[in-house]
Amino acid sequence: MAMDGYRGFLGLLVSALLVGFLSVIFTLIWVLHYREGLGWDGRAPEFNWHPVLAVTGFIFIQGIAIIVYRLPWTWKCSKLLMKSIHAGLHFVAAILAIISLVAVFDFHNTLKIPNMYSLHSWIGLTAVILFMSQLLLGFFIFLLPWAPLSLRAFLMPLHTYSGLVIFGTVIATALMGVTEKLIFALKTPGYDTFPPEGVFANTLGLLILVFGALVFWIVTRPQWKRPKEPASLRLQPNGGTPEGVEGSMAINFGNTDKSDSELNNEAAARKRNVALDESGQKSTM
User: Fold this and answer.
1) What is the second-level CATH architecture of the domain 3-282?
2) Where is the Cytochrome b561 domain (predicted)?
3) Which of 34-48, 235-249, 270-284 has the lowest mean pLDDT?
């Protein structure tokens, strides 16, 4: 099963992974070099876990979980396996997101700073709630073999759309959080004087934005979508692959192998040529 634009997909995939990894590295450099490092004592180092875990789990790992179905070398794997990987990555992202929230709330409560007053906190908490709801819905409806196929088919477009909306909301929340932190933290020199930390954190924000754009582009290209499984596979409770079917779903990225239709056409042409030769010989005799 061929994939259109395989080289383009591979280039975008490598670019997305590289930019996402750089976002995590930049976040660590930001808190370790420009801020006060990492700790868990109710002070600033504990707060710094919030951006680190949010970018690592809620953005980078969630982005990988979204595009995992688009990896063509996994198309021959069973749907249940890919569902488990998809859900497992989202579960890891959820754990890191929860720890990041605990860190920021504990930091605020220790220093008597009000909670939930900024737009960043409102949208961020909304994104976490929606993400958890999406995770639970996906687990009980799509991963476990209880829900009927009609319900899965009805909810799948909503599940896909909601996942992208939540991912975009998380990226917007992260950009607001970076700006908010710089405005509060940079006093002398001020944020408006282009200090090194401000420029560095702004670059981090651009990396996060580019990563999100690449993920959105990869998952919205119809030619890179995982092929639909045959009816015999869709009737399986978890989309498992019966024996003898995986071989028919092997991926062919080149043009060296001919399709069945081409082989059938060639065979028919040979038969016609033989018939013509025989008729010609009979007319000559």
Assistant:
1) Up-down Bundle (1.20)
2) 15-220
3) 235-249
